[in-house]
Design a protein that fits this description.
8 strands; TIM Barrel
Length: about 300
């Protein structure tokens, strides 16, 4: 996921209506509220982030459909600071902090940036380091070495602070496993927006990783994702939006938001053959195992 033009493209159109509430509370394990609501322009130190009122309204809309817990994910130093601040202010939000692989590929994961991510990762309401990883789609070969160096640095930050690791993997399945096997994956490792087939899912599951599925699970051409989800133990599953991106069916192409998680949860229940309320409870339990309790500071 890239900033600028891609962010604007994914905010076009009218927001979809909220779905029917889930029978039990569940989480959105990966959202970008700053982008959903319009992030500060890159390089504009005098721009404005979304207002507290707008953020609170988004969180309330999610809670109204029983999406009661969110993980707000940073992708730059600035958005990571914003994410950490939001989690400090809002009891239903935890934060993840990182320099995104595409940012790293453009040279933005320098020593100062990584030192700030390291500082933020120690904060009580920051529970994950990510999204970090490798992207062979948007970053060309000239940026791959910088991406891998950043990925390895983020792995060490996660292990140093006992945080979960949230991985961005685009067209880099084998490279991701190579780095994790070499560097040593943190005890709690999440493949965000899982994009592999059943074979890759098994390789990840065998390593103890958690697979987080986004709205792509509902796409008509994503049979391979449904096969991957079907062979994944329920206790190694999470669900997410990656909002404002990857809006689930039937609203594909319109802006995504945490309140649309129920579409993906229902699809996941069908794919796994799990009763809906039970799946919600198990997703919530896995969320707490990966990120810790929402209502506590440590």
């Amino acid at each position: 996921m890239s900033r600028s033009a891609n962010s604007r493209a994914n905010r076009r159109g009218e927001p979809p209506p909220s779905p029917e509430p889930l029978p039990s509370p569940v989480l959105d394990s990966h959202t970008h509220l700053d982008i959903v609501l319009g992030e500060r322009p890159a390089g504009d130190e005098h721009g404005q982030w979304a207002s507290e009122e707008d953020v609170d309204a988004e969180i309330a809309a999610a809670a109204a459909v029983n999406v009661t817990r969110l993980v707000q994910v940073g992708v730059t130093v600035a958005s990571s600071r914003w994410s950490a601040d939001l989690a400090t202010r809002h009891p239903s939000v935890l934060a993840a902090v990182a320099i995104h692989p595409n940012e790293a590929g453009e040279g933005r994961a320098d020593d100062d940036a990584l030192a700030e991510i390291d500082r933020l990762a120690a904060l009580p309401r920051v529970r994950a380091v990510g999204e970090t990883g490798l992207d062979r789609y948007r970053t060309g070969p000239e940026g791959w070495a910088a991406q891998e160096a950043s990925f390895r640095a983020h792995i060490e930050i996660a292990k140093r602070h006992g945080r979960a690791l949230v991985i961005h993997d685009r067209d880099a399945h084998e490279e991701i496993l190579r780095v994790l096997d070499d560097a040593g994956a943190p005890e709690r490792t999440v493949l965000h927006c899982f994009s592999g087939d059943a074979g890759f899912a098994k390789a990840c599951v065998d390593r103890g990783f958690v697979l987080s599925f986004a709205g792509t699970l509902t796409f008509g051409n994503a049979g391979y994702l449904r096969e991957a989800a079907a062979i994944t133990p329920v206790d190694q599953l999470l669900v997410e939006t990656d909002s404002p991106f990857l809006t689930p069916m039937p609203h594909r192409g319109r802006p995504n938001a945490s309140r649309l998680v129920p579409h993906t949860v229902r699809a996941l229940a069908e794919v796994t053959g799990t009763e809906l309320a039970e799946l919600c409870a198990r997703l919530t339990a896995t969320g707490e195992r990966v990120f810790g309790p929402w209502g506590e500071s440590g």
